[in-house]
Amino acid sequence: MGSNQRQRTISPSRTGSDSVESGIFNERVLVLVFESINWDIHTLCVAASVNRKLRAVAKRLLWRELCMYRAPRMVATLTNGGAISRMGGAWHTLAKLMFFCCGCESTRHFKVSRSWPGHFVKTSRFSKTSGRSFLAKECRGDLLYVSDPCEHPMGEKEDDVGIFRGVFQGFMRSKTRACLIRREAKLEEKVRCPYCGARVWSMTAARVIPKSAARQLGSSNGGLEYFVCVIGHLFGSCWLVPLSSDEENVEEEEEEEEEDGGSEDFDGDDGMKLGIDCHDRTGEMERRVL
Questions:
Q1: How confident is the model at residue 288 (pLDDT cuts 50, 70, 90)?
Q2: What is the pTM of this model?
Q3: Which of 4, 111, 216, 257 is the most buried (most CB within 10 A)?
């Protein structure tokens, strides 16, 4: 009789074990499926919106795998071989920053004639070498990845607008954060980070934008503004000055001289266009998921 009781108590635990193994197996299948389609971000957004279980799997596993698959060197540098918590935020936030241009609207120090909605990008290029140009002299020890600007035409009588984004490694211990606190820079009242929703500092208002940032972007001094959130995400806009043919040649030479491993290039959609109509329902769903 005692033996039968022991068997009855053991039986449920075995069933639970099989259930757990089944769940792990399904996650492995999901990883293999997404690897086979080069971690298409649109498909991942759709999968994450199906139900709570898939959304939880995406948040715990799939966004991380996407980031590591698409930009392994950048992720390894940002995490320094450790957990995502070392750079703040979550994997889905980093994925959004990699593949999503946050758009542009007028701010206190940067006025535009019309706003641009956020959209997915076809390709992305992030560079820590470019990131150094955005650091004040006393903050040059920080590590910052910044994207090339996403160009948006404003009309025949206006220069194009460039929208850029970036992320710090270990922002909580960074010299940039210490500098902002030392200067008693105030957090913006009306602006929030488009990637994580945290409050932000205006680097223009804090007067810590070096002239090298404008040169890196191909903008004029005073023709840009960018923000840094309390988590360590950077985003901003600038006026892009048209380049002459000589300047374009110089820019190409500088890119060739960039140190090996200083940048990471990755496709946003395996070569397919990622721009999304702001009235498209699929696009709205993807923005909500991210």
A1: low
A2: 0.77
A3: 216
